[in-house]
Protein: Tripartite tricarboxylate transporter permease
Organism: Nocardioides oceani
Amino acid sequence: MDSFDLLWGGLSAAVTPENLMYAAIGVLLGTFVGVLPGIGPAMAVALLLPVTYGLEATSSFIMFAGIYYGGMYGGSTTSILLNTPGESASVMTALEGNRMAKRGRAAQALATAAVGSFIAGTIGTLLVAFFAPALASVAVDIGAPSYFAIMVLALVMTATVIGASVVRGLVALFVGLTIGLVGLDLNTGQPRLSFGVAQLNDRLDIVVVAVGIFALGEALWVAAHLRRTPLRVIPVGRPWMGRRDLRRSVGPWLRGTAYGFPFGAIPAGGAEIPTFLSYVTEKRLARGKGGEPFGEGAIEGVAGPEAANNASAAGMFVPMLALGIPVTATASVMLAALQGYGITPGPQLMTEQSDLVWTLLASLLIGNLLLLVLNLPLAPMWAKLLRIPRPQLYAGILFFACLGAYATNLDPFDVGLLLAFGLLGLAMRRFGLPVLPLILGVILGPLMETKLREALTISDGDASALVSEPLAVVVYVVIALALLARLLRRRPAAPTHPEETDRRDEELVNR
C-alpha cells in the first residue's frame, strides 16, 4: 500500500472528537509551558510527559504531538518578545524577531513564525511519511556491527558538534553512558552501579533523568542567578501579516524547510546548523531588495530560521522511527515515551506496528494544524504569561517536576533521584557541559551494548567483526573525518573564568 494511503488511514483513525480534544489540550499545554522563559521544547515535553500517562497509546500520541509542536511555538514566542531563546536553535529567530518587536512589529514576527512553523512542519511530516518506510526497509538488512557503528556516529557527532568544547561534550557523553549502565546486566543478571540499593537494580527511568536534567536543573540554575527585577515584555497586538510581509516570507519559508529537513533526518543532525544557514542565505538574498536591513528587524530573518527549525524537528522522526536513534534532546524524550508503551522504534516498527506509526504521523499533522488555528489568535494571552514573577514560576516548575517523577512508579525514591539529577543538571550548566550528549548516552548506551555483544557473540569474541561490514567501515571513516575536521576548525574559546561565566549567564537570565 502507498505511504500516503497509509497516512490517510492514520488520519481516519486519529480524527475523532475525543482525539481532537486531546490534541487541542496538548497544543495548549505545550504552548503554556513552552512560552515560559528559559524553557525550551525538550524541557516542555519532559515536564508534560506524565500528563499523557493513563491514556491509551493512540490518544497519548495525539496529545503528545500537540505538546511537541506547542512547545516549539512557545520557544519562538520567548525568543521574539524577550530575546531569550529556550534552545540554541532559536537563537537565529531571536536575532531579528526581537528587533522587529522593539520596532513595534511583534505581531508580524509572531505571525510569520507561526505560519512558517505550520508550513515547514506539514511538509516535513509528509516527507517523513515518504522516507521513514524506505529507510526502515533498508535498515532491516543492517547487521549488528553496522548498527553499532551508526549509534557511535550519533553519539560522537552530537558530543563534538554541540557546544563550544569537544572535551566537554565527550565528558557529558561519558557521564550519560555511565548512567545508562545502572541496573542488572542483561546477560549475567548481575547488578551494576546499584551500590546495594534495590531500586537501582532496575534501569533508571529516562523520564526521571530527563525531567531532572532539564526542568529541575534549569530551575535551580535560574534561581542561582535570580534578580528581583521584572521581565520587560513587549506588548503584542493581534498577529497578522500584510501582503508585503507575506511576499517577503514565502521564499524564506520554503528555503528554510529545504535546509532543515535533511539535517533533521540525518543521525546526529540537529537544527542549529540549518537555522544558521537559512539566516545567512536570507541575509545574502535580501541585499538590494529593500525592506528592513538585517540587524534591524528583517522579517526574512525570522521566517527562514523558524521554518528550518521546525522542518528539522519533523525530520528527526525519520531516524527515530526507522532506526530507533534520537538526534535531539526532544527526540530523546519522545523515544522514552514510546518505550513507556512497550514500543521499540527501529527497522521492525514500521511493519510490526504500522497502524500505530501512521496514526502517530497523522497526529503530527493534526497537532500542527491545531497549533496554527488555536495559538495565532491567542498570542496576546500567551505574552501575558511572561509577566509571571520568576520565583512563583520556577516554584511551580519544581512542584510539577516532582509530581511527574513520583507519578512514574509511585515511589518516593524517584523524587530523590530527581533531586540528584537536578543537581547534576545544575553542575553541568555551571561548568558549560552540554545536556544533549548525556541524555543520548543514557538512551543509546544500553542499545549500543546489546548490539556490541551481539556482534562479538557471533564472531566468538573477535573484535575485527566490528569492521566486517562495508557500511560499518564507511561510518567509522566518516567519524574519523568529522573529528579531524572539528579539531582543525578554529573556533573562539568559550570563557572559562568562573566570574566571567557567572556575569555572562546572569546577563542572559535577566534580559
Q: What stands out?
A: Residues 288 and 327 are 38 Å apart (CA to CA).
